[in-house]
Amino acid sequence: MKILSVVWYQVLPARFGGQKGTALFTEYLARTLPLTCLCARSNQPENDLSYKLVPQLPVSKWQFLNPRCWHLIRRTAQAEGATVLMLEFPYHALAAVLIKKRLRIPFILHAHNLESERFRQLGSRWWRLLRIYERWACRHASLVLFKTETDRAAAVSMFGLEPGRTAIVPYGIERKPVISGEGIRKQFAPNGELIILFAGTLDYAPNAAAFISIVKDLAPCLDALSFPYRILVCGRIRSAEFEHLQALTHPYVTLVGEVDDIDPYYAAAAVFIDPVLSGGGVQTKIIDALARDCQVVAFSRAAQGIEADLAPEKVTIVPDGDWTAFADAVLSGSMRRPQTPEAFYKTYSWPAIIHNIAPLINAVVK
After folding, report:
1. Which ranges in the chain belong to alpha helices (H)?
2. Strand partners, 199
């Protein structure tokens, strides 16, 4: 067994939810099964890795249509003695199918979610074409890995997949020691105000829309409850398209921006909020918040695909768009902070996830 993982985008250093999901999946899988990762040249590891990193793919989405990239994947598979390919997302499926025929090795598709559905929800005109390609990719893969049961079931139905050739690999977490948030509290809430945290990539449209709603909809509802609070919003804004977010203001909302270490903010927060109402895929920010023992308040859409029943005292789900109920849930959630239960970690910890998926990967090459 030797896996060649093809990661076409930058995941190292892992700063954001999607990057962490791929980087940690690859790292923990490599601790169990031999693995080489062929990735984009922009990847720069900060720590030692359990696998060989080959950063030779171009930093371009046009690589999917570039025969030179197909040949690079094939040559790397041959040089590394790969017995199975693993794709992160379906975009290099054409190369994988060609290599499957040429080298007679199967490929596994780590689909994450239904990309065509995410594109449709974001209003992309390409979603129908992507759905055709995504269906073709899934049907040629020996094993397809999804983040949620909802996406898996939808793919089985829409693409005609055999359920036995699909599996769930949820977004995983690493258990971290408890740290102090006192420095953040002193900086942003010196008079003991309640800290409410939202964190996400702000130059991603659904998160940007959530930030706008925090200022225009949530904050006024919290004002009406007459208690001292501060909402901290952490996340990058690197695209000029989203620079207008910098102009949003409210006396009790602070746009912190991109931070080097989000953990002290989780530690300082009484409540983590997720008011996202658009987009697709799992809201990894909720899982990260629970892993850091935060109370979470989220709209129903944001909580899709997350097994909130594993931590029922930690997560409050509010009907989509009901800002009054959301504000009430924030206030009531701030009054308690039970520990995140062990059942959550048994489902979402990376060692547990890899323990469940490794036998299925092994079976692909037998």
Report:
1. 17-30, 67-80, 93-103, 115-121, 127-140, 149-159, 182-188, 205-213, 219-224, 263-268, 284-291, 323-333, 342-348, 350-364
2. 234
Give the pLDDT score at 248: 95
**Tens digit of each residue's pLDDT (9 = 90 or more) over 132-181:** 999 999 999 999 999 989 899 999 999 999 999 999 999 999 888 889 99
Q: At 228, which CATH number? A: 3.40.50.2000
The residues facing 72 across adjacent strands are: none
By the 10 Å C-beta count (0-12 exposed, 13-18 middle, 19+ buried), 87 is classed as: buried
225 and 140 in a common domain: no
- CB atoms under 10 Å from CB of 42, counted, come to 13
| The token pair that represents 295 in the structure block | 């109370």
How far is Cα 56 from Cα 175, in angstroms, rounded to an integer? 32
**Rg of the chain over CA atoms, in angstroms?**
21
pLDDT at 112 over 80: yes
The answer to whether position 53 is within a domain reads: yes
35: nearest Cα among 20, 46, 17, 22: 22
Rounded-to-integer distance, Cα 159 and Cα 224, Å: 49
Domain count for the chain: 2
Question: Is 43:88 a contact under the CB 8 Å cutoff?
Answer: no
For 36-51, what is each residue's pLDDT tens digit? Answer: 999 999 999 999 999 9
Within 8 A by CB and 6+ apart from 184, the residues are 195, 232, 264, 265, 267, 268
Statement to judge: residues 130 and 267 lie in one domain: no
